[in-house]
Specification:
It comes from Brevibacterium siliguriense. The protein is of the alpha+beta class. About 55% of the residues lie in helices and about 15% in strands.
Length: about 400
C-alpha cells in the first residue's frame, strides 16, 4: 500500500500530470469511459499539499476538455452529411428533433449543462455538430462549460485534500464521493423533471389527438358533451344500460334508460390527472362506490363518450337514483360553466358536476361527490363492481391508439 501510494504521489506531483489531465479530459469527450473527472479530483487532492499547482490543473483540464469537445463537435459536423438518409429511421429522426428542441430555447447553455451530466458532454458536443451550431458560438459556450467543470472538480479535490491532510487516499475517496453525490442528485432531479415534462407533453399530445379525431364536431358545441367516466361506466355495455335500459351483470337495480337511447357517437380512452377512491354504500353493487378526486395525484384511466347533453343529464340522474326528467338543469350547466369549474346540482352520491375541459367547444364533463378522498371514510367495493371496473379499464387500455390524458384544469 505504501509503495502504491508513493507511486501515485510521484505521478501526481510530476510536471507530466498536467499533460495527463489534459489528455484524459480531451479523450473523455470522445470516449466517455475515460475517468477524467476522477483523475482531476485525485490530482487536486494532492494539490492541497502544494503540488501540483491547482491553477495548472484547472488550465490543463479546461484546455483538454475544450479541445476534446471541439473534436467531438467536428465529428458531428462530419456525420451531418448523412443525416438526411438517417432520418428515414423514426428513432433517429426523433433524436435529432429532440436535440434541436433542446438547443433552440436554451442555446449554448446546453453545452454547459452537458458537462455535468453523465454521458451528456458527448451527446451535447456531437449533437451541436450534427445541428450545425456555429463554431464560434460553440467555442464560447463550451469554453465556459469546460472552465466551470475544471474549477468544480479541482475545488472538490482541494476540499478533500484540505480536510484530510496527511491522508490523501481518504481525501480522494471523500472528494470522489462528494462528486458522485452531487452528480447523482442532479441526475435524479433531471430525470424527475424530464418525466414530468414528458407526462405534460404526452398529455398535451394525446389531448390534441382527441381534438383531431375523425368526429364531426360542427354544430355539437351546444348539443353534445364528452362524458368522462372513471367508474363502471368505462365499460360500454354498462353505460348502455343507462342509455337503453337494463340491468348490468351483478347489479341489484334495473335502469329505465335515457329519453334518447342512442349509443355514443364516439369514445376514447383517456387518463385523468387525479385518482379514484371508494366510499359510501352502493345501492347497485353493495360496498363502496368510486369517486374522483382531482386534488390527489394520479393518473387514473377513464373513458370519454360523445353523447348529447340530454343523455348526460339522464345518466347523471340515474347515477343519483332518480328517474330521468325533462328540463334538467344539467343540460344547460354543462355549457354555461367554464372549463375547470365545479357545481353542486343537488343531493345524491354524484351531485358535483366537474367541467374538465373542452374539445372544439364541446365540454368534457363528469360528476363526483362534494367530499374529497381525505374527507370521508373509505369502504371496500364488492367483487361485481370491481369486475365491471376491470372490464372498463381493460377497454381503455386495449384502445391504445385512443390513449390520451385529459388536460383537466379543475
Amino acid at each position: 500500500m505504501e509503495l502504491a501510494l508513493e507511486l501515485l504521489a510521484t505521478t501526481l506531483t510530476s510536471p507530466w500530470v498536467y499533460l495527463l489531465i489534459a489528455v484524459a479530459a480531451a479523450l473523455d469527450s470522445l470516449v466517455p469511459i475515460v475517468p477524467s473527472e476522477t483523475l482531476l479530483i485525485t490530482a487536486a487532492t494532492f494539490a492541497a499539499a502544494g503540488q501540483p499547482h491547482p491553477a495548472g490543473l484547472v488550465l490543463a483540464a479546461a484546455s483538454g476538455a475544450l479541445f476534446g469537445d471541439l473534436a467531438a463537435h467536428l465529428v458531428g459536423r462530419f456525420a451531418s452529411s448523412g443525416v438526411g438518409r438517417l432520418r428515414r429511421w423514426t428513432r433517429i429522426a426523433e433524436l435529432l428533433d429532440s436535440a434541436r428542441t433542446a438547443f433552440s430555447p436554451r442555446g449554448g447553455s446546453v453545452l454547459i449543462a452537458g458537462r455535468f451530466v453523465p454521458g451528456g458532454r458527448s451527446l451535447a458536443t456531437i449533437g451541436s455538430g450534427l445541428l450545425g451550431i456555429p463554431i464560434r458560438m460553440f467555442l464560447v459556450w463550451d469554453g465556459i462549460g469546460s472552465l466551470a467543470w475544471a474549477l468544480y472538480s479541482t475545488g472538490i479535490g482541494l476540499i478533500g485534500g484540505t480536510i484530510f491532510e496527511g491522508r490523501p487516499l481518504l481525501g480522494v475517496a471523500v472528494g470522489i464521493g462528494i462528486a458522485l453525490v452531487i452528480t447523482g442528485s442532479a441526475e435524479l432531479v433531471r430525470r424527475l423533471l424530464r418525466g414530468r415534462s414528458r407526462r405534460r407533453e404526452r398529455s398535451g399530445r394525446r389531448f390534441d389527438d382527441l381534438r383531431g379525431r375523425n368526429v364531426m364536431m360542427e354544430g355539437m358545441s351546444q348539443t353534445h358533451v364528452w362524458y368522462v367516466s372513471y367508474g363502471s361506466n368505462m365499460a360500454r355495455d354498462r353505460l348502455a344500460c343507462y342509455l337503453q335500459g337494463g340491468r348490468p351483470p351483478g347489479a341489484k337495480l334495473t335502469y329505465p334508460g335515457a329519453r334518447d337511447s342512442s349509443l355514443p357517437q364516439a369514445e376514447a380512452g383517456i387518463e385523468l390527472p387525479g385518482t379514484i377512491y371508494f366510499a359510501g354504500e352502493s345501492k347497485v353493487w353493495g360496498g363502496g362506490m368510486a369517486f374522483y378526486d382531482h386534488s390527489v395525484p394520479g393518473p387514473t384511466p377513464a373513458k370519454a363518450y360523445l353523447i348529447t347533453a340530454e343523455q348526460f343529464a339522464d345518466v347523471a340522474a340515474q347515477e343519483m337514483n332518480r328517474p330521468p326528467e325533462p328540463d334538467s338543469p344539467l343540460e344547460r350547466l354543462v355549457f354555461d360553466l367554464p372549463p375547470g369549474s365545479s357545481h353542486s346540482v343537488g343531493p345524491g352520491g354524484y351531485e358535483t358536476l366537474l367541467v374538465l375541459d373542452d374539445v372544439n367547444g364541446v365540454p368534457m364533463v363528469t360528476f363526483t361527490a362534494a367530499h374529497g378522498s381525505a374527507d370521508i371514510e373509505h369502504t371496500q367495493p364488492q367483487e361485481p363492481y370491481l369486475a365491471m371496473l376491470r372490464t372498463g379499464t381493460a377497454e381503455v387500455r386495449a384502445a391504445s391508439e385512443l390513449h390520451l390524458p385529459a388536460a383537466a384544469r379543475v
